[in-house]
Amino acid sequence: MALPRTLASAVTAKMPPLWSNLWLDLRALGVFRLALGAASLVEVMELITFQGAFLDENGVCPPARMSSGTMFDLYLACKSPESVFVLLLMHLLAVLCFMFGFWTRLSGFVCWVFAMSQHHRLSNCVEYGGDRLRSHLFFWSLFQPLGLVWSIDAYLQSGKASQVDVPATEWIPLCFCPRAIEELPHPKKEKPVRNTAAPLSAFLILLQLASMYEYTASTKLGESWQSGDAVLQTLHLTQYARQPVASILALFPSICRLFTHATLYIEKYGWLLAFLPFQLSRLLAFSMFFGLHFGLNLSLRVGGFQLFVLSAWCVALPRCMLDLLEAQLQRFWPRFAQLLVISQTPVGPSAAKRAMRLGCVTAFNLLGFSLIFLAIAEGCLHRDRNQCAMAPLMRDFGAQQLLKKLDLLQRYNMFSPDPPRKAVRVQLYGVLASSQCKVGVQEFWKYCRVVELWSDRGFPSCATKMSLQTWDNLSAPARQPVDFATNRWRKLVEKTEKSKGLGGYMCSQWQASHSPSQLLGLWLVRVSSEWPKVKESFTAEMKYWCSSHAKELMQKLPPQPWLD
C-alpha cells in the first residue's frame, strides 16, 4: 500500500533538478566529522608530546603573555603538569567520541571548548592559523546534525534494521527544505529509500572557508605575489620546505610562477563554485582546493593547518562521489558498510510539537548565519576600516567583543602580504659553571664550558647527547638533520619577543635533569640566509641568565668572531 503524500513530499517531488542540487549532502557532513576528528587527533597528540614546553605553567609560553578575550580557557585553572595532562586526556577522549560520532553534539561542544582554550593558552607565543581554524570549525559544527549520519549515534538509534521501512516523507532535524528522496543500491534490498539532504546550516562551514580565503587573498598585495615569485621564494625557505618535493619543484621556476598566480585566483574566486547548485561545480571546487592544500602539504611544513582545511572542504563533496564511496564500501567491506546508516526522525510528534521544534531550529540557524556574517564583516573591518560598509554596526553594537569571546575573529595570514625572504635556523648554547668560570678570573671565558641544547630532532632538549666545548673555541653552529620538529617550535623562535620564554623553561629543565652541573645561562644564535643568496649570517639573538648571580658573567662574555 502506497504511503500518503504529505505537503513536504509533494513539494520535493516537484522540485526541478537545479533546486534539488542546492542542498549539501548529509553524508558529506559525516566525512567532515571523521576528517576533522582525525586532524584534531594529530594536533592533540603533538600537544601531549610537548606538554611540558607548550602548556605547563613553567613552559616556553608563560600565562602572563597570553592575550585575553576568549570565553573559556580551561588551562588557566591548571597549576600542575598532572592537571594539564588530565585535560589533554579528556580532550583526546572527546576528539575520539566526536570522530566516531558517539554523543556527537556533546563531544563537539567539548572539543570546541578545548580548541578555544588551547588557542588562548598559546596566543602570542606558538599559535598559528591551524589553531584558529580548528576553533572556528568546531564552533560551526555545533550547528550541524553530525550525529545523524555514519556515526555510532545513528547506528545505535537505528540498530541493524534496514532503512527501507522509513517513511519517505520525514523531515531531517535542522533541515528547512527536505530534498528529493535518494535511492541507493543495497546488498539485500533493491531500492532502500533515505533522505540525504543536509540542513541549510551546512553552508556555515563553506562561508567560513570563503571568509578565510577572501581575507588572505585580499592581503596578498606584496611584490612577490604580484610578480609571481612567491611560491619559488617560499620553497627556498628551509624552515618551511618539505624535502624532497620542495627542492624538485624549485628546479622549475616557470611552474612555480604559474602556481603563484593560480593560488591567488583560486583563493579569490574558486570558493564561489562550492555555492553553485551543480554537482560538477562542487566537484571542481573540492578538487581545486584539495589539490592546492595537498600540494602545499607535500612541499611545505605549516603544521596541521592543511589538514583542517582539507577536512572542511569535505562538506562540499557532491552526491555522485558519495554514492560511489558507498557503493565501493558495500562491495569490498560489506560488514563495515553496515555502520554507514543515516538516522531518521520518527513522525510521532504532534503538529504543535513539530511546529515548535521547527521554530527553535529556525531561530538556532538564524543565530548561526548572523554570527558568520558578523565575523565576515569584522574581518573586512580589520583589513580596511574605510572600505567596510558594516563598520558602524561592528562599532555601535559591540559585535567585535562578542566575536572575540567566541574566538571567531577572522585573522588569517597565509604568507601575506609577502612570504618571508629569510631562511632561518637556530642553535641554543648553554654555559656551564666551573671553578674558574667566574667574574674576577683573568680571561674567565676560556674556562666556561658550553653545551649545545638544540637537539638534532628539532627542539631544545637536555636529555640528548651534547658536545662540550669552551667559550673561546666555540665553533659556528652546523646544520642539524632537523631544524624544527614541529611548526610550533618554528613559531617560537621566529621573533625575539616570543623566544624569551625559552630561557626560563630550559633553566628549569636543566635543574631537573642535570643537578650535578650548574647551568649559568643560555645563548640563542639565529642563522639566516636571504633568498636568492646562499651565504648564511650568524646573529646573537638572546642571552638569558638562570640566576641573578650569573647576570654579570653572561653579559661580559666576549662576542664570537664568526658573528656578523
Automatic annotation (TrEMBL):
<feature type="transmembrane region" description="Helical">
    <location>
        <begin position="84"/>
        <end position="103"/>
    </location>
</feature>
<dbReference type="InterPro" id="IPR011020">
    <property type="entry name" value="HTTM-like"/>
</dbReference>
<protein>
    <submittedName>
        <fullName>HTTM domain-containing protein</fullName>
    </submittedName>
</protein>
<keyword id="KW-1133">Transmembrane helix</keyword>
<dbReference type="InterPro" id="IPR052964">
    <property type="entry name" value="Sporulation_signal_mat"/>
</dbReference>
<keyword id="KW-0812">Transmembrane</keyword>
<dbReference type="GO" id="GO:0012505">
    <property type="term" value="C:endomembrane system"/>
</dbReference>
<keyword id="KW-0472">Membrane</keyword>
<feature type="domain" description="HTTM-like">
    <location>
        <begin position="21"/>
        <end position="321"/>
    </location>
</feature>
